[in-house]
Write a structure and sequence with these properties.
17% strand; 731 residues; binds adenosine-5'-diphosphate; 25 helices; alpha/beta; binds magnesium ion
């Protein structure tokens, strides 16, 4: 869309293997020049030396210094991938795994998916036996451990962006701690932009894992001695810094320029609007440099871009022909790859890039040329309340550590400015560091995975940050109610093992496995696939009305999940026609991806010995199978609540969890994006919930159910619908 206006050519959608195989010589030498200038390149010898000598090395360096793209290439070039094993570099975010792999393949001059590849859930762009360097999400590496617990396919595992402390990173570190005790030849490289490096190093100190260990005899001697000042090996009782078992810490000097931080004098009412106004002011001042705005999600980014586009038109009329123009671009995880590249690459001459980004731009992706950061100081994150058993996406203030990272994005090429959209006083009250995801997420998936790996005693597992015991108990309860665990809390056979095998969260896995009973495996596979992709509706700010109209054509009284099914069927009937999809405001790219995922899920089912059949138009069967996974999220309509301030929601739209919320007051309502928003059935199950600023929990992807289904489908949880099993402390 934007391509024409700015004279930039869009690639067609990336399909994983279409990266150019041959890159012209000039571009290649340019890339080499850029690579050589990165701070981390100067430390090549030290990094390789430490890797020879230590099982674990912690690498600390500013964002943009070259950790993610350069270090794995150093290892590759030093021969760490020789002898049939390869190098894995994990990323907490899918979008980063894909982008970085694409970039590195380009730097290596190879086709993506050959020597350099990536692997994320449902998408493996690598070639067995050929791929030497694989960027993968930490979650997908965890999955590989189910088949290969000691990760024997790899010689080096680089755990990247460890400072993010994602749930899967923490879990992976806990497991790697066990693996290194049995694989002295394996090397772990932990890289982080800001880490309590010592803490992770101490956590992985092999001497605490296994009291005695012989030094690896195979490790050849390194290229030479190195400056002591650079390397800190945690000194243990025996004080031998070159011991394989002792983790090493290496700090790479960044080359960050000073960033001046500014605050608002008064709090702002709407940070998207304030961010846009601030951008316009900055632009009018005429100071050169791109602008990066941190917001919390796709919707906000698109709204900001739409507002900025209006402003851009106005500024152009005022500024005249030769004036610098603004080029607003969004950047969020679900964005098509080609559009994402626009945000990452340098702006064309005469344009000032203004990127409205989510947290992905904080450390995962590096943007060129940013001099101004406008920070809304908020982030959308998972929060779990073990009392209510609800995990919600919540827009919350960021931590000071996070704000500091964001500010740093402004000082990459020259001194910069960071404008925080809060008062200095409010800022001083923010928490210092972000709570690790492990301590604020639902743990059912984690527990299921650990059980499948044979780790039964969760309490004795070594966690980098132990999750709350209450959350652990809740996870065990949920898995038990889904039939994944037996009464002794062991993985049940075959159901628990099958659930762990499926690349789906436990609830959806349970639905898919139950679908056999209801004769609708085909349909539930479709629904699970549609829930595993980003929105199938066309993205773009100004098109909401058109999307709503298109949505209405497919919507049904059964709810959003069955609506997805209708969309799918209609798309299939059209012969998976791109034109048809466009006419109906659907994204062909996302639909094709859903089709791929659907195929994989069907393959998994067949591998488990189940032949998925279709129930044709028996919708009740589909809804029952959905209920078999989501019954813990069953809610019923409560009495009337009128809210004059929030006209959209006035009337009856207040739900409560059927199973109770442990005495906690939780207000649930149907999210506006749902097809049942106006219908408001008396009972429903939802798939996800978001917590808005008003405090309401907004249910998304809802399905209407019949009350009598609950005791029928989950008799251990619901004896009768009118009298749910009392909860401890419940009302
Ligand atoms: P780190 O992991 O230390 O944050 P990276 O290895 O991701 O750093 O990036 C190093 C440098 O490579 C960046 O400063 C940027 O200039 C460049 N770079 C990385 N990815 C891309 C990309 N997709 N397109 C253009 N330049 C990139
Ligand atoms: Mg990085």
């Amino acid at each position: 869309r934007k391509a024409a206006a700015f004279g930039i050519s869009f690639d067609t959608d990336r399909d994983g293997t279409s990266a150019p195989a041959v890159i012209d010589g000039e571009k290649q030498s340019n890339l080499l020049h850029q690579r050589n200038r990165l701070p981390v390149t100067k430390y090549q010898r030290e990094i390789l030396y430490l890797l020879e000598r230590h099982s674990c090395t912690v690498l600390v360096g500013e964002t943009g210094c070259g950790k993610t793209t350069q270090v794995p290439q150093m290892l590759l070039e030093a021969g760490w991938a020789a002898g049939g094993r390869s190098i894995a570099c994990t990323q907490p975010r899918r979008v980063a795994a894909i982008t970085v792999a694409t970039r590195v393949a380009e730097e290596q001059g190879c086709t993506l998916g050959r020597e350099v590849g990536y692997k994320i859930r449902f998408e493996d762009v690598s070639t067995p036996g050929v791929t030497k360097l694989k960027y993968c999400t930490d979650g997908s590496l965890l999955r590989e451990m189910m088949d290969d617990p000691l990760l024997t396919a790899y010689s080096v595992i680089m755990v990247d962006e460890a400072h993010e402390r994602s749930l899967s990173t923490d879990l992976l570190l806990g497991l790697l701690r066990k693996v290194i005790a049995q694989r002295p030849d394996l090397r772990i490289l932990i890289s982080s932009a800001s880490l309590e490096a010592e803490k992770v190093a101490a956590f992985l100190d092999a001497r605490t894992v296994k009291a005695t260990r012989k030094r690896d005899r195979n490790a050849s001697s390194g290229p030479g001695p190195m400056g002591d000042a650079l390397v800190t090996a945690t000194n243990g009782p025996d004080g031998d810094p070159a011991d394989l078992a002792t983790p090493a810490i290496l700090s790479v000097e960044g080359r960050l320029h000073p960033v001046q931080v500014h605050y608002l004098e008064e709090p702002c009412a709407d940070y998207v609007v304030t961010a846009v106004e601030t951008t316009v002011e900055l632009h009018r001042e005429g100071i050169p440099g791109d602008i990066l705005i941190f917001l919390t999600g796709q919707e906000e980014c698109e709204r900001a871009v739409a507002l900025l586009e209006e402003e851009a038109g106005r500024l152009r009329r005022v500024g005249g022909k030769n004036a610098l123009r603004i080029m607003p671009l969004p950047l969020f995880a679900g964005l098509p790859a080609a559009q994402q590249m626009l945000a990452l690459e340098a702006a064309p001459r005469n344009y000032r890039k203004v990127v409205a980004a989510t947290n992905v731009a904080e450390t995962s992706l590096t943007l060129e040329g940013v001099t101004f950061v406008i920070d809304a100081c908020h982030v959308k994150q998972r929060t779990y309340n073990p009392r209510t058993g609800l995990e919600a996406l919540l827009v919350a203030p960021i931590s000071q550590a996070s704000a500091q990272q964001r500010a740093g994005r402004a000082g990459r090429i020259r001194p910069g400015h960071c404008l925080r959209l809060c008062t200095q006083e409010a800022f001083s009250k923010l928490q210092q560091a972000t709570v690790p995801e492990m301590q604020r997420a639902e743990l059912a998936g984690t527990v299921l995975q650990l059980k499948a790996l044979g780790i039964d005693n969760m309490m004795r597992f070594h966690w980098l940050a132990p999750p709350p015991a209450e959350a652990m108990v809740r996870a065990l309860e949920l898995l038990h109610s889904l039939g994944a665990l037996d009464d002794d809390a062991r993985l049940s056979k075959p159901l628990g093992c099958q659930m762990a095998e499926l690349p789906l969260e436990p609830r959806l896995a349970a639905s898919l496995l139950a679908a056999g009973r209801f004769g609708c495996g085909q349909e539930i596979a479709t629904i699970c696939a549609m829930l595993s992709v980003h929105s199938v509706w066309a993205s773009g700010g100004g098109q909401r009305r058109a999307i709503e109209e298109a949505q209405a054509k497919f919507s049904t009284a059964e709810g959003d999940l069955v609506t997805y099914l209708n969309v799918w069927k209609a798309w299939e009937d059209s012969g998976r026609n791109r034109k048809w999809a466009e006419r109906n405001m659907l994204s062909q790219r996302v639909l094709l991806r859903a089709a791929d995922i659907r195929g994989q899920l069907l393959y998994h089912l067949r591998r488990l010995g189940m032949e998925p059949i279709s129930c044709e138009n028996e919708v009740a069967a589909v809804c029952k199978a959905i209920t078999a996974g989501l019954f813990s999220y069953a809610t019923r309509l409560e009495g009337t609540i009128y809210e004059s301030v929030d006209a959209d929601y006035s009337g009856t739209n207040s739900y409560s969890l059927v199973r109770g919320t442990g005495g906690q007051a939780v207000r649930l309502r149907i999210h506006k994006s749902s097809v049942l928003w106006r219908v408001r059935p008396s009972m429903l199950v939802f798939h996800t919930v978001q917590q808005g600023p008003s405090g309401w929990h907004e249910m998304q992807d809802v399905t209407a159910i019949q009350p009598e289904w609950l005791p029928e489908i989950a008799p251990h949880m619901f004896q009768s619908v009118t009298r749910p099993r009392p909860q401890p402390g419940g009302t």
